[in-house]
Amino acid sequence: MHPLLRFTLDLFEPIPAPLPETKAPKIRPRVKPTQLAVPPATSVGQAVHFRHPHASREVRLGHALVAYEFKRGQRRSIGFSVGPHGLAVRAPKWVPLVEVDAALQDKSAWILRKLQEVRERHARLAEHTIDWRDGASLPFLGQNLVLKLDPEHACANAELMTSEPCDPSRVLRLSLPHHASPDQIRDVVQAWLMRQARQVFQQRLDHFAPLLGVQWKKLALSNAGTRWGSAKSDGSIRLNWRLVHFNRSVLDYVVAHELSHLREMNHSPRFWDTVQSVLPNYAALRQQLKSEAAPRWS
To answer: Strand pairing of 86-92 and 137-140?
Structure first.
């Protein structure tokens, strides 16, 4: 690994096997600080483009042309991070650009994999954006839920109804007029989902806590955009209410994950052994959580 290189890991990602290291070329081209380091394009296949909205430099990594945000600062090492906007690179003020380019090449496989994951996630989110209207559908605990506006249904703001036996969907009847705005529909549905989330989370916390030999003290619902849960040593648990979009087994993984932190406040092998003690297939559930996109709330 390049002595100046440091890269970020996903929140719930167990410590991965180290990526194979590639040796830096013995002779490196001299690059002036004002130039863009763009090696010749590969002749195999068509180049893929990734561009950060605040890109100031670009580099060709294999088949991909990557435009990235580059900043210098008071730090000891080169740092890479791949977020929703693309690749960002941070480097110490004293490190020459040729060293930055070499570090990018050394970890090109990791960078391209993360950039592709971000692109695929954006595509899934676009496909799953909810259209807030009568007849719209969204997943609830792994099953399809259909919204129905019913101004005559005045006993509650929202109520889950049983569908036809041959129809796998369920109907969420909303006490709203047919001309209700998308914002009104969204707010009523969100309030109902959050009530369901609290009930389901409490049930699963009570189920897994005795199995793990821990006690949770407080549950709070989170609305974070990228984090599914967190735990504090005092027994406080925060869970993202959007987890109710997933099936129960995936939800159980996050619950067991956070409760396991009450025993191991880290992601060490002992922590993952704790998770595995109650969910032997946790790795598959974790991968499912990462690969499946929850609906996008516009």
So the answer is: unpaired
Contacts 24+ apart (CB under 8 A), 174-180: 174/147, 174/148, 174/149, 174/150, 175/150, 175/151, 176/149, 176/150, 176/151, 177/149, 177/151, 178/134, 178/149, 178/151, 180/149
Rounded alpha-carbon distances, angstroms, from residue 39 to 28, 29, 36, 111: 11, 10, 9, 17
Nearest partner of 116 among 87, 88, 95, judged by Cα: 87
**Is 272 in contact with 106 (CB distance < 8 Å)?**
no
CA distances from 83 to 49, 88, 89, 185, 293 (A): 16, 8, 11, 31, 16
CB 130 within 8 A of CB 140: no
Q: 72: which 2 tokens? A: 């210098």
**Mean pLDDT across the stretch 209-231?**
93
Place of tokens 């195999």: 44
Two structure tokens written together for 110: 């990791």
pLDDT digits (tens, 9 = 90+) for 125-184: 666 678 899 999 888 998 888 999 988 765 556 666 544 444 456 888 888 899 999 999
For 82, 102, 168, 255, the CA distances from 294, given in Å and listed in that order, are: 20, 37, 19, 17
Q: What is the pLDDT of residues 269-295, one digit of tens each?
A: 999 999 999 999 999 999 988 877 666
The answer to whether residues 206 and 189 touch, using CB atoms and an 8 Å cutoff, is no
In sequence order, what DSSP letters do the residues of 202-257 get, joined into one string?
HHHHHHHHHHHT----EEEEE--SS--EEE-TTSEEEEEGGGGGS-HHHHHHHHHH
Looking up tokens 């099953």, which residue turns up? 143
Question: Is residue 157 a contact partner of residue 175, using CB atoms and an 8 Å limit?
Answer: yes
pLDDT at residue 119, as a whole number: 87
| Alpha helix (H) residue ranges in the chain | 97-106, 108-127, 182-212, 248-260, 269-278, 282-291
